[in-house]
Amino acid sequence: MSVIDNVDLDYIHNEIAMDNSHDAINIIVEGMTDAKLMEDFTIEDKCSIYHVDSRDNVIDLMRRLEAEGKTAYTVAIVDADQNKIMGETLPAHTLYTDTNDIETMIFWSDAFYKIARQLFEASKTPDRASISAIRKNVRIQALFVGELRLVSKRMGWYLSFKDSNTKKDLDFKKFIDYRTMKYRGDKVLVEAVKNHSKLHKLATKDVMTEILSLRKEKHPSVELVVGHDVTKVIALALKHVLGKEETKNFNREQVEIVFRAAYGNDDFKKTYLRTAMEDAVRDCGISFLKN
Length: 291
Hints:
Rossmann fold; 5-stranded parallel β-sheet; two-stranded antiparallel ribbon; 13 helices; alpha/beta; 2 domains
């Protein structure tokens, strides 16, 4: 069995809680794209993969199973989403991605060199050093947004990086000069996000004070950078600076499709997540991950 296309939590709970065959591992992930990716790394007849539509649903389901002592043959994966910094406690057998999400795991893996050659003009990526330089610049731009995301979480400001009604993403051209791909500054970013969030009464100086305070904590980039920000920056760079004719109009979602397609089992085998998955259910004696 592979991906189970049913997101009803009660159904999934009952399937796992009432299964006494103990001949396969249950894997619970957030969304269908996560499930499809995990399918590439697992042995089909040794696991069942469930997607439950959200991070909160993964955690809620695992808490139910934990309370019933039914997690032995189950492992769940959630995006860290900066919650590790916030001191979140997860249920048993529930694991974080190595970085904030799958997209940033891919971004920091060797798969990014393949991705760059697929997306960017050949003249911009003659060697690994040039691709590393592009990755560094993307990381820096995404880091500024990631800092603001964490500050907003900590302070309970509920700043929005996607309009809840229109589902429109924050326009990164508001704070990144698309001609040079340079950051316009914290004040410009804060004002752009405030306007997008319709939180005009929030004092910009207060937000900037919290950003500066966060920087003094010296968190590594991997704890702050968020995947959607990475792929938004890349989409902006494709359109104005780096894109091939066939990729220059790619949006964030299209960039993320390329990310996932380029990420293979050899990349996944190098992750802490893979090791943690094996360790979580080691006592079951079931080899469910591909070599």
